[in-house]
Amino acid sequence: MGRAAAARVTRKSPSLYLSGFSPGTFQMRRALARFALLLPIVATPALAAEANLEDGKVKVYTCTGCHGIPNYKNVYPHYSVPKIHNQNYAYIVSALTSYKNGERSHPTMRAQGESMTEQDIIDIATYLSQPAPAEAAGAR
Q1: Closest Cα partner for 51 from 113, 123, 115, 107?
Q2: 35 or 4, which is more confident?
Q3: Under a CB-based contact definition with an 8 Å cutoff, are residues 100 and 114 in contact?
């Protein structure tokens, strides 16, 4: 391969070099960004296909003791307990899995998470990603 051919093969946009990216780094970052964008689209339907909405409704009953009370404040640490109905499915799976694995440290939620199976988490996330029953009834 001659010099001219080698220059054509390796030549990339000068703006990439000016911004500190080499061609390999740029391609890797672009590939990772595409993967990160596609993962929720690809993974969520696969997980949701195994989900059981009715089982989720039964399993989430214990959650309403704190999360179902409007303006409820946690005793320790003291803060408002978040609303969990109509929450993002992937966020609920991530949060409950983090509690289960000990990556999040709230004592009550960690105890709840440690008792859950992966199927429990999927069922609960499927149910909670729906509007709350009162919200659904009010929308009619």
Answers
A1: 123
A2: 35
A3: yes
